[in-house]
Amino acid sequence: MANDAAINGYSEEGKYITLISSDGFEYVVLREATEISPTIKSMLRNPFSESRTGRCDFPEIRSVVLEKVVEYFHYWYKNRDKDDVPDMNIPVEICLELLMAADYLGLDAKPTQPAIRD
Questions:
Q1: What is the DSSP code (8-state) at residue 66?
Q2: Percent of the chain scored above 70 by pLDDT?
Q3: 35-80: pLDDT as tens digits
Q4: CA-CA distances (angstroms) from residue 106 to 4, 7, 10, 45?
Q5: What is the biggest distance separating any 2 CA atoms in the chain, rounded to whole angstroms?
Q6: Which PANTHER family does its entry note (predicted)?
């Protein structure tokens, strides 16, 4: 039996997704790890082609930058429940592009906490 999402043309199936850089490099990433990005989360949960294919194209992000973003997704996922986490190593030469990619992907926003109900 199909769920409502699949009926509407999209689904949340697939444990992994593929992120594609401007220069054609493909990175297979754990879907759950990418959901820290509101942009990617929206792409995968709405009736966009990305939700059907599990492939997200980023024609404005070079592979060297997208690779660092993917590294961050895994880093965040692995350390999400830890308090004292060491800094990631970021090459100076990609800092500006990485900042722009983080802004585009919504990674510069403070994660929202779920509302506490009485």
A1: H
A2: 81
A3: 899 999 999 988 889 989 999 999 999 999 999 999 999 999 999 8
A4: 27, 28, 22, 16
A5: 51
A6: ELONGIN-C
Number of CB atoms found within 10 A of residue 55's CB: 14
Which one is predicted more confidently, 113 or 73? Answer: 73
Residues 54, 98, 72, 102, CA torsion sign = negative
Encoding tokens for residue 4?
Answer: 């409502």
What domains are there in the chain, each with its CATH number?
Answer: 11-105 (3.30.710.10)
Q: Which tokens sit at 74?
A: 């895994």
Tokens 């996922």 belong to residue: 77
CA 17 from centroid of its chain's CA atoms: 9
Number of helices (H), then strands (E), in the chain: 6, 3
- Residue 36 in tokens: 């820290």
Candidates 62, 72, 59; CA nearest to 93 is 62
Q: Strand 16-20 and strand 55-57: pairing?
A: parallel
**Tokens 């054609």 sit at which residue?**
24
pTM, two decimals, is 0.79
- Beta bridge partner(s), residue 29: 17
